[in-house]
Amino acid sequence: MSLHLNSSTKIKLFGVILGILIVCSFATLQFIVLFGVIKPTAYFVPSIVGGLSGFFIATWFNKLSEAKKEAEESHNRLKLVLEGTQTGLWDWFPKTNVVIFDEQWCRLLGYQLDEIEPAFESWQSRVHPKDLEQCYADIKRHIDGETSFYSNIHRMKHKDGHWVYILDRGQIIERDADNQPIRFTGTHTDISQLKEMENALEHSNKRLKQLTLRDGLTGLHNRRALDEHLIQEWGHWERNQTSISVLMVDIDFFKQFNDLYGHIKGDECLKQVAKVLQSSVKRTNDMAARYGGEEFLIILSGVTRTEAFSIAQKIHDDIERLAIPHKNSSIALQVTVSIGINGCDAEQRCRSYQALIEGADKALYEAKQLGRNRTVLYNGCMAK
């Protein structure tokens, strides 16, 4: 039968044997010097003492060895984690402004350890100037005890010139009698890839929002975007008493156009008319939107009803220049539009943006009743 012993047991057994041999050797010399003879029975006590001593020394040595091994393994695991997460360590001693960086910290910025001076200036000089003020503010908040730990995201300049996004986290681990920091330790983590993903996601979300606010066919804003814009502009008008005008535009006899030319031609007609309407929107706060079907709405901020009427006349002229054939129209041989206008200014107040649109709708109805291909201004007493 074979006996399998683990390394710990082997070390302890070796310690016992070695202890017995050493103590017994000293005992032998002592017997010879003092008595001139060796008595085998006299080895009983030295063997026990030597064995126990060897056992305890071997046990202590084994635990020390295991602790050292565990420390090395922990160090290697930490090193792997820091390298895998692109994290570097720093120790800052505020009273002397000495900062001790580890190799990984230096590698984050493309340097070797001997290329970075262990000083606060080494960090400070590489932080983006626009981010430095917030870094100082967050550090001060932690020093003043307002936060349990320091945390900040800032950009640092890489050795090759590009900027690296750093998650900087730390904590004061030692203070003096006056509660001033003696030692401040923490980590730097390269989060550039996360920031790139975050920026890409933000861009995608903005793009997605834009798509949800656009009419898929004409490219104009849709009804949802229109509602949001109206609420915003109405609040602006109420606060500043700024003029605002609305043009409601309808393509004359569009159903008959579709019946004759088909929906593909109808879609093309809508897109050409939408392009003309969009060209009438000149300023940031103006908007052209597809209201529904062949109806469109134009919002003109800072424009009086009289000025809006001139813009409507230009729209008529531009639509006429398109010269889109429309043999089923009862009023012309090409596509035309009818426009109703309503506005809020010093002369005419509006109780709400809904009332503003309702007025434009009534004016459009009046334009159709009068024969189409014309513009009518809402006069406040029209009935639909």
Automatic annotation (TrEMBL):
<dbReference type="InterPro" id="IPR000700">
    <property type="entry name" value="PAS-assoc_C"/>
</dbReference>
<dbReference type="InterPro" id="IPR029787">
    <property type="entry name" value="Nucleotide_cyclase"/>
</dbReference>
<dbReference type="InterPro" id="IPR050469">
    <property type="entry name" value="Diguanylate_Cyclase"/>
</dbReference>
<dbReference type="Pfam" id="PF08447">
    <property type="entry name" value="PAS_3"/>
</dbReference>
<feature type="transmembrane region" description="Helical">
    <location>
        <begin position="12"/>
        <end position="37"/>
    </location>
</feature>
<dbReference type="InterPro" id="IPR000014">
    <property type="entry name" value="PAS"/>
</dbReference>
<feature type="domain" description="PAS">
    <location>
        <begin position="74"/>
        <end position="146"/>
    </location>
</feature>
<feature type="domain" description="PAC">
    <location>
        <begin position="150"/>
        <end position="203"/>
    </location>
</feature>
<dbReference type="Pfam" id="PF00990">
    <property type="entry name" value="GGDEF"/>
</dbReference>
<dbReference type="InterPro" id="IPR035965">
    <property type="entry name" value="PAS-like_dom_sf"/>
</dbReference>
<keyword id="KW-0472">Membrane</keyword>
<dbReference type="InterPro" id="IPR001610">
    <property type="entry name" value="PAC"/>
</dbReference>
<feature type="transmembrane region" description="Helical">
    <location>
        <begin position="43"/>
        <end position="61"/>
    </location>
</feature>
<keyword id="KW-0812">Transmembrane</keyword>
<feature type="domain" description="GGDEF">
    <location>
        <begin position="242"/>
        <end position="380"/>
    </location>
</feature>
<dbReference type="InterPro" id="IPR013655">
    <property type="entry name" value="PAS_fold_3"/>
</dbReference>
<protein>
    <recommendedName>
        <fullName>diguanylate cyclase</fullName>
        <ecNumber>2.7.7.65</ecNumber>
    </recommendedName>
</protein>
<keyword id="KW-1133">Transmembrane helix</keyword>
<dbReference type="InterPro" id="IPR000160">
    <property type="entry name" value="GGDEF_dom"/>
</dbReference>
<dbReference type="InterPro" id="IPR043128">
    <property type="entry name" value="Rev_trsase/Diguanyl_cyclase"/>
</dbReference>
